[in-house]
Amino acid sequence: MPSIPSFLKSIFYLTFTLSGLHFFKKRFTFSLYVGSIFLLLPIDSSEFNSNRKHLNMPTGSIKIFTGSESKYLAEKIAKNAGIALGKSSCPRFSDGEFEPCYEETIRGSYTFIVQSTFPPADNLLELLLMIDAAKRASAYKIIAVMPYFGFARQDRKDRPRVSIGAKLVADMLSTAGINRLITMDLHADQIQGFFDVPVDHLSAVALFVPYIQQMGLRDIVIASPDVGGTKRANVFAKHLKTDLVICHKSRSKANQIDSMTLIGDVEGKDVIIIDDIIDTAGTITKAADLMKSKGAKTVRAFVTHAVLSGPAFERIEASCIDEVLVTDSIPLTHKSEKITVLSCAPLFADVIQKVFENKSISTAFI
């Protein structure tokens, strides 16, 4: 029997049903029977598969834009994704007020906005304004790409009368209009729960582990600079099949360490310290000096986000640490022979493409 397109079958069914109800008010069951015959006719499978393929295809085009302070990274992401970086501007008034603007249409497009929210707070505000502008310009989907999620250390009330800054940032991003967030190595995993939109939480494991394996070190031991980073360091230890040591520190206030002790053996080992943020470098350098004093052969630190504020560079240069490897989620303000930068652009470019094409990105997670 020749096949009948599914849309014609629907029309025939509706026509017979309505006509049956009109002319046979008391025997409308007959019309339903006649109309249902068309449901038994063979479906044009090629048309059906074509429709399914069309429904699974992404809507609109893909466009990548950047905030002012993350242009260096957005350009590399766009290049790795094979997409031209979108045109935008951010004119400033004489009093410092700024007004982000898209210089091309984004109507109906998947709009990815790259901006790390490291200090100053202008970077966060610029991202919020760009999200709002994209929403008002009728972008189909608005995805915030935040390689470094600022204020992530404020993830809970650790003492009375303080704010939960990470939750406030999440609320502002949601209110501004994001449909999705892509970020990397949040200071606390539970920050994902502050959002009611999908959060793609990527890991620098995909960047650091291959690099460590290529170094050819024989006696590796993974170290966590504090108890809170044990879970993160353990992921590396499992990937590399090595032992794990932990530093226990006590603080009287932020960025000031009172004491530090080592749990585990590092004598004759190539120690690799794992952390998500290096700020003033007090914890990393103190841990490196402690491990060298305990007989470690070499000490290196692999840190995702190089905040590097205050005396950080001076401390790194003066410490016993052999090398600090960071990503380019935050631009370096100074150069150091001890600091090596690995780009996270290929990782974000791959995830952006997969999000657009509705493909799995599980390999980019921890």
Architecture overview:
The chain has 366 residues and is of the alpha/beta class. The protein is 36% helix and 22% strand.
What attributes characterize this protein structure?
36% helix, alpha/beta, 366 residues, single chain
Could you give the topology of this structure?
Elements: H1 6-23, H2 28-37, H3 45-56, E1 62-66, H4 71-81, E2 88-89, E3 101-102, E4 110-114, H5 122-136, E5 141-146, H6 165-176, E6 180-184, E7 199-202, H7 205-215, E8 220-224, H8 230-240, E9 243-253, E10 256-263, E11 270-278, H9 282-293, E12 298-306, H10 312-318, E13 323-327, E14 339-342, H11 345-356
Parallel strand pairs: 1-4, 4-5, 5-6, 6-7, 8-9, 8-11, 11-12, 12-13, 13-14
Antiparallel strand pairs: 2-3, 9-10
Helix pairs in contact: 1-2, 4-11
Strand order of the largest sheet: 10-9-8-11-12-13-14
Supply Rg: 28 Å
Mean pLDDT: 86
- Unreliable sequence segments: 16-57
Order of helices and strands: HHHEHEEEHEHEEHEHEEEHEHEEH
Distance between the termini: 54 Å
Shape: globular
User: Structural class of the secondary elements?
Assistant: alpha/beta
